[in-house]
Every structure is written in C-alpha cells, then in structure tokens.
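re: ur question from earlier - yeah i can do the single chain one, its not a big deal. heres the input i used so u can compare w yours
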Amino acid sequence: MDVSQVTSVLHKYFDAFYEADTNKLSQLFHKASHIYGHNENGDLDDMDKETFLKIIGSFSPNSKNLDFIRNDEILAINFISDKVATARVKLRFSNLACTDIINLIYLNGEWKVISVLDTKEFI
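and the output i got, formated as tokens:
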C-alpha cells in the first residue's frame, strides 16, 4: 500500500482538471469507469468515461485564466486493501467548487480511477 502512488494519481487528476486536458484525464480513468452525481434536475447523473471526457473537453482550461485561483486538496486517502483505495478530494474547476469521492483500483501495475462520486457548487 504505497500512498505516494495514489497521491501521484490525485495530483495528476488536479492538474488535468486545471488544464481541462482530456488526454491526461483519460489516462487516469479505467475504460469501465463511471462518474456519478446530481444533474441540474436533482436526479442521478451516471456518466461513462467517454461522455465525461466530452463534457470536460468543452470547458476552457483554468490555466488560461490569470485570475483563477486553484484550490486542490486531498482530504483523505483510505486503503480498503492493497489494490483498492478511496480518496476524498476538493478542487475548483471552471466556476465550480467540487468535493469528489474517488475510487481507485490497482490493475496491471498502475492505479486507475474506477469511479467518482461528484458534488459541485457554483461559485
């Protein structure tokens, strides 16, 4: 259970969102991953990886906004086993403040995001 490997994935997650870089995000997510949260109607939003990446790709990178202040923070990392971990993180993306629960799995020698439970607030 190497916390530094999971921490590295989470920092790449933050950077990919900051840059709105779907290629970087794609490398972090397992092909079968899903992102869950509330949609604008308050119903469950269940997106597969490809749908999620298309949405992120439609945003302008925060890195191009000189007034944007990053607020990335790892709140907790818990290992369920040596190959399964969960993390709670905070980040800003565009005009949203997000707290995400990220589930990670160790497969083929690397950690991958398998699911994200996403909360967002407009700021």
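The first strand starts at residue 29 and ends at 38. not sure if urs matches, ping me
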